[in-house]
Design goal:
Layout (H helix, E strand, L loop, with lengths): L5 E6 L2 E7 H4 L6 H15 L4 E6 L4 H13 L2 E7 L7 H8 L3 E5 L1 H9 L1 H9 L5 E2 L7 H7 L12 E6 L3 H7 L7 E6 L7 H8 L8 E3 L13 H14 L8 H13 L8 E6 L5 H9 L3 H4 L1
Parallel strand pairs: 2-10, 3-4, 3-6, 4-5, 7-8, 7-10, 8-9
Antiparallel strand pairs: 1-2
Helix pairs in contact: 2-3, 2-7, 3-4, 5-6, 7-8
Bound molecules: pyridoxal-5'-phosphate.
């Protein structure tokens, strides 16, 4: 069994544990290891030599696919939203791993999200590729993420995780033998299809109780929030755990708020998943280096 480090502390009568995927998987970071695991296996079984996926210019999934591809001997192609920026640290990293980048307009990117034929026409250009959706949330990702809590499925009352595209949450919900209630905290301000997407990724007979709290996006995806940044600094000082500004900072701040407001059963055991994403700091510092003071 895989051993993932964790850290436990007491907070207002709750026992809080942080599951530290960011320490266990520092290369293919955090939850992305689990999202990619069975996709890579499937790609190999289907005798693919190239992985292709989609993402924003600072995407953790692009970063993860690039390094996983390199480590496991696949060529990689990233279809990136917007224009090239050679200074962007995530894109630089992806290129260093050998990822071939192709930039598409925001409009086209958006239409590919909802309109598969456009995506197919586009990917056809690259010949035979193993295609993973933006953020990688397909059924193989869910199977991988259903292993995150292996060995600890019956230990906690609540499991809390940040939600982007929903694959990780779906995998947590699918954990065999899970006894905890699952709480997802979306980091996007608007994502109308989210619940439906998650429902589509879990099996019909699944009995896990799960819910989403929508109040912890702090302005929206990858938006600058002085509150989140201040919290991350304090949390790091107190616990020596660095959170990321896009997912886990918001997740942890949200989790604490739920406990302060007693929306979770008093005295319960709460597992918060540190899903990684620390590569995002470089892109974050790059994006906000000039105007960080204006944004505060
Ligand atoms: C990608 C990512 C998530 C979101 O995962 P989804 O499966 O897209 O919901 C959460 N946390 C971190 C750190 C991530 O990089």
């Amino acid at each position: 069994m895989l051993h993932i480090p964790s850290y436990t502390y007491q907070f207002k009568g709750y026992e809080v544990t942080i599951l530290r995927l960011e320490q266990a998987f520092p290369d293919v970071q955090g939850n992305k290891y689990f999202k990619l695991k069975y996709n890579l296996q499937e790609a190999r079984e289907q005798q693919h030599d190239t992985l292709l996926t989609f993402g924003g210019a600072f995407s953790n999934y692009i970063h993860a696919t690039a390094i996983a591809g390199k480590q496991f001997g696949f060529k990689t192609i990233g279809i990136i939203r917007g224009e090239d920026d050679p200074q962007n640290p995530t894109l630089q990293f992806a290129r260093e791993q050998g990822m071939q980048l192709h930039f598409v307009s925001r409009e086209l990117f958006k239409s590919m999200r909802t309109h598969n034929p456009v995506q197919e026409a586009f990917t056809a250009k690259y010949g035979r590729c193993y295609v993973m959706p933006e953020g990688g949330s397909n059924n193989f990702a869910v199977t991988g993420c259903s292993e995150i809590l292996e060995g600890i499925a019956d230990t906690y009352d609540y499991v809390i995780t940040a939600v982007g595209t929903g694959g990780t949450l779906a995998g947590i919900i699918e954990t065999p033998g899970l006894t905890a209630k699952v709480i997802g905290l979306p980091v996007l301000r608007i994502n109308e299809q989210l619940e439906q997407t998650i429902r589509g990724l879990i099996t019909a007979e699944n009995k896990t109780e799960w819910t989403l709290f929508y109040d912890y996006h702090f302005g929206g995806y990858a938006k600058y929030s002085a509150d989140v940044l201040k919290f991350i600094a304090q949390f790091n000082q107190r616990h020596q755990i660095l959170l990321d500004p896009i997912y886990t900072g918001k997740m942890m701040l949200g989790a604490i708020d739920l406990m302060v407001k007693e929306k979770l059963k008093p005295q319960s055991k709460v597992l918060c998943i540190h899903t990684g994403g620390l590569q995002g700091w470089e892109g974050w510092n790059y994006r906000f280096k000039e105007n960080s003071t204006d944004n505060q």
